[in-house]
Amino acid sequence: MALAAFLAIQAIAILLFAFGIGEFLRLVRGCLVLRRIARAGRQNYTAVLLKSPLVPPVSTIAVPPDASNESVQFARRLLELHYGKNEVVIVLDGPSEDEMSVWHEEFHLCPSTRVIGQKLPAARVRGVYESKDPIRVVVIDKEKGGPVDAWNAAVNACTSPVIGLLDPAADFQPDILLRLIQPMLEAIDETVAICGGVPAPPGDNLISRIGALESLRAWMIRGAALSERNRTLPFPGSAVLVKRSSVIQAGGFTAGPLELFLRLHGLGMAAGKPYRILFHPEAVSQSRRATTRAELQSQLGRDQREIASAFFRRVAIAGPFGWKVLNILFYSRALRPWLETLGYLLAIVGLVLKWVGVPAVLFLLLAAVGMGIVLSMAAAVLREFAEPNSPDDRRLTALFFAAIPENLGYRQLRNLWLIAGFRPSGSLEKANRGKTKEDRPPAVSAASGSV
Amino acid sequence: MIRIELSVAGCLLGLYTLFLVALFFALRSRASGRRQRGIGSKNFTPQIRDALVDYLSGSNDQTRIREFARSHRSEFIDALLEFHGTVGGSARDRLCDLALELSLVQNWCQEAASKDRLIRRQAYTRLSFVCAYEPCRRVAGDLLQEALKDADPEVRLPAARALVQSGRIDGLTRVFQLAVSQSLLIRILLAEDLRRHATELCEHAVPQVLMGDNPREVVAALQILVAWERALPMEGLHKLLESDNREIRLEALRLAKLVPLTPETRSALLRFLREGDEEENTLAALTAGRLRLQEALPALARCLRTGGSELAGIAASALSEMPPKGWQTLQQIAAGEDSAAIIASAALDRARRKAGV
């Protein structure tokens, strides 16, 4: 038994070390991508794009869960975006009469004659409204079908070729659409989607710095590092523009933007034709700073649930390509927390029962905690290295030293949160009552066309 | 065994940490040094701007300007280029003349030959501003024409914009040909610059591309013409309306409202309203409304009754543009009880409100 515990701890430590080195290399790759983008420099043409009739219209979607002040404010923020042809589509998923009246009053709604197509299956639409004011807003009142169903109803209602998906929990700039559409226009035929944003800024307290480190690592790996191989995935706080035709071809939403991107990658790879999903590291959108432990846990949990949902349904979503795209996230967000936690438990039990010696435990701590500190420090340093023209020494110092306490206590707690969050989500029907069509892997569905 | 592994892991992590700590201190000292020295902070920009404004408003004292150009050259250039788009005519010429006097233009021409594409990009962007002034163009010489062949689109674009400033038809023709062969972004940017030369371009350059055998370029050329949003002296649109390529037909339909209406174009529009698909119907209805084609009334009424929501709405708007017959048609349709009646009634109300009836 003692030998088994000793060998298990040793194996876990070696695996953790290997994963750590892999993640370090990805951070370096992300840094090189960011540096290349920063050096290439991109001219800002937003003033011309704002006026040009050649710029494609964009429909930004909001699926508010209620008629609270936050939901209304989010819809208002979408309406205030600077863009020549921006239409805001608000889908209310089975709203009560009170909620409907709030939206009626807010936007001075009147019935619209617009007919909503059924390109994507969604619950029945009860009414379509537009504003009497000179604002481009369409409000869809539909039967309750879940958030995914509402997203698909929104896609049905959109009339623009490009759809904007902005995170209500993120801070975004008013010119976000103009700045995101510009890289798309450089190769509009091949570009399927673009994902832009920067990591959350560090605050004054330790929690917010730890949150900033979380956000930074996700940004550098999911955004920058993966974009090198055209496998960009949305990261927390990012904003997305995606072609409507691609969403429809992908069969619509099955969950959040992460699953949509996975599906788009699957279709693109299966079709074998050139396609691009871009990463745009500009300060157009960023997740809000977490100031309390509960906020940090909530942000992390939300992200982890999205990853878990995508991972457990990867074959249905992206066929054989699902694993190719998601394996990195699986190692860092599912396997590593399990291995670490198991290693700690074995080490404690082993030490108490004298099955293992101090060197073995030290080895495990080096692989888990030591490597964790190195990775967080690397993220902080490499990000500054990637931005030669706008280094920020205060941000660098704050994040660099936050890496030490992050791995002494928080990391172990985070492992438990990640383990708890990484489980299959409810059935598809629960999330999307209107969607009855069975998902086909892209390897099959791509046969009928390309992305 | 475990001690060896521990040592290896410790050494490896130690090396990583050493590397990161060294990088941390290097980056930190560089960043704080930059902050203390005020690099990138543009401390002198307001004063430079004031000096330039004084100069533009007629002052001939260049002492301060020359001092800034010597001591804070990069900041001075940025401030000078900020006037791009805000000054025109003689003020712009005066600014370009200043750039010439301070040897900035000559420097940019040298930088334009750099092998570093970032320096090249920057040089052409700066040249594109000053090349509105003839003496600066003379200094630039053939550089701009050559840059149109550069592999980097971010170099081709400012070079093309600089050529447009010259207003010479050979340069404009080359830029138009470049615009139709490049990405949508470059097309959008150049379309904006070429707009004021639309009439000259419609004489030769545009027909040349439209008669070419590259459908992508034909579509791109039509998109640019539509984006100009101005009346164009163009003939032979009906040939494009009869094209086998749907994209070309659709763009030609969008353009129809901007070119003189000929009998051939008129009959093509009516045919699209009768026989086209939904998108062609929609665009034809839009054009018929804009041109107030009375012959299109029956076809518009049919589109309103049988078309989808977008087509029906546009057909109703088109009918509302043509009183009294169009209004009568709307009244008849509004008397029904279907969705077309609601759309017709709404369009009629809008038209009456607009006309003050």
Short structural summary:
The complex is a heterodimer of chains A (451) and B (357). With 451 residues, chain A is an alpha/beta fold.
Oligomeric grouping of the chains: heterodimer
Q: How much helicity do the residues of chain A have?
A: 55-70%
Biggest interface between chains: A-B, 53 and 49 residues
Backbone shape of chain B: extended
Task: Describe the protein.
The complex is a heterodimer of chains A (451) and B (357). In chain A, 57% of the residues lie in helices and 12% in strands. Chain A is of the alpha/beta class and 451 residues long. Chain A has a nine-stranded mixed beta sheet, sandwiched between helices. Chain A has a two-stranded antiparallel sheet with strand order 7-11. In chain A, helix 1 runs parallel beside helix 13 (358-386) and helix 7 (206-227) packs across helix 13. The radius of gyration of chain A is 23 Å and the shape is globular. The model of chain A is unreliable at 427-451 (pLDDT under 50). In chain B, helix 17 (246-255) packs parallel to helix 19 and helix 19 (278-291) runs parallel beside helix 21 (309-320). By secondary structure, chain B is mostly helical. Chain B is built from 23 helices and no strands. Among the domains of chain B are: 45-166; 276-357, no CATH class.
